[in-house]
Amino acid sequence: RWRGAMVGMFQFNIVVGILVAYLCNYLIGGLQLGPEEWRWKFSLAVMPGLVLIVLLFTIPQSPRWLALKGRIAEARQILLEIAPELSPAEENAILLQAPTQDGKLSWAKYKKPILLAFAVAAFNQLAGINAILYYINDIFASAGFSKVSADQQAIAIGATNFLFTLPALYLIDRIGRKTLLLIGSVGLFATLAGTAAILISGQHQELLLWMLIGFIGSFAFSQGAVIWVYISEIFPTEVRARGQSI
Questions:
Q1: What is the C-alpha to C-alpha distance for residues 39 and 48, in angstroms, rounded to an integer?
Q2: Per-residue pLDDT for 95 more than 90?
């Protein structure tokens, strides 16, 4: 019953990381480091990378994967450690109803979910989200904003990404995955069209920030939060890992 919000937390942590990165870039930009500035921005990423490596040695195996391999006792022990209040019914749903072997991801049998997964994932990227996040400062610079101002605008974009992910996590299990995608797609179309018009005409640059905020908000509320949940749910359990990976 909480799957949408729980899987969506993956996206939530991504947007938190993006916001922190923008804040760090803004602070480093204020130090006037000159040509070496970009090196410092990249170097800061070493620290969370190092923390990740250390913490990865402490995480447990997936109970469902262990059950898939027939290692029921290990799976039950991990469930006891990470979810001690799990009901017997929920435990059985994970351990006893797991398939006995990996399923074959056959095109003939799973053509529709494969095509759906491909389409949702492709449009997730073709909407331009990463192009905008990566080149946000250049976009503002091309519209006439100064370097410092562009860094500040990037923080506004990162904060929007963060804030609009929160209602998506609240609503995804209440109004459904498809509804969020439909609502967000309207916002994506309108704001991308507005952004293009501003950059092509060179007029109304003061509206650019609002257009990009609207785009990021629409994406975070829909595609950003939904994609991981939707792709994982359209495949049966026995082929879910392979289907989602593709």
A1: 16
A2: no
